[in-house]
Amino acid sequence: MTLASFRYARVLSIAGSDSGGGAGIQADLKTFQALGCYGMTAITALTAQNTLGVSGIHGVPPDFLKAQIRAVVEDIGVDAVKLGMLHAPEVVEVVAWAIDHYRLPNVVLDPVMVATSGDRLIAKETVQVLVRELFPRAVVVTPNLDEAALLIGRPIDGVDALDDAASELLALGARAVLLKGGHLPGDDVVDLLAEADGERLRLSSRRIASRNLHGTGCTLSSAIASHLALGYALPEAVERARGYVVAAMAAGADVQVGAGHGPLNHGFAPVPMVRLPRTGA
């Protein structure tokens, strides 16, 4: 049998399932596919969820999470990882083990703590373990303002406060932080990428009037992971990912899905699967 000359850019989502399809691994897989990557999953938890909120969470046993990761990594391989809902300390510890054991590259940590509906998705005792174990292992951490405020212990009340908040998050051990300012008032949305080496990049766009914002954070972190898997450096991966999310929001703004916060239009302009030269792994 002739050895294939090409492979796909492979992105693994280790996250929770959203039964409503707008966030979690469902949004991740849609994003990977839309950006030309091959998506895989290791599910941390099942949620009973729709556009109105979360009505139940069922955690996956840590040993079975480890089995999912092992099955994917040892056969298919991974070029980037998106981390989403990690609801318990033992789940975080499995993920940290996997990153080290398999030397998983390009880890993007979206510290999912609160859903768009306001439902809390992570146990309080998990936060400290998440920071200690995963902040140093991720190439970038992508909190929204509510998550960042929970992490640093104080609210972030304006665009001018983003720099100091990002510095505090870096001080927790992160190598880079993308602090998302979408929850701040104003006609423009300003995000800040801060790296531990001192580099700062502000990204701004006009606010899109839409109720369909469910899964925005999941989609952004998945898009960053996708672009890292395709070979882009972090700043360009973030810029490209942000552009994709803004366009997906605009494309889904006038569509109604459910009675609450609907999803983005992930498939507004899909990219064919990217074929990369196969060199070893």
TrEMBL record:
At the top level, the lineage of the source is Bacteria
Provide this UniProt record's keywords sorted from A to Z: Kinase, Transferase
EC code: 2.7.1.49
Pfam families the UniProt entry points to: Phos_pyr_kin (PF08543)
Q: What's the top EC group for this one?
A: transferase
| Keyword Transferase appears in the UniProt entry | yes
- Record-level Gene Ontology MF annotations: kinase activity
Q: In which pathway does it act?
A: Cofactor biosynthesis; thiamine diphosphate biosynthesis
Please identify the protein, giving its name as recorded.
hydroxymethylpyrimidine kinase
User: Which organism does this sequence originate in?
Assistant: Variovorax defluvii
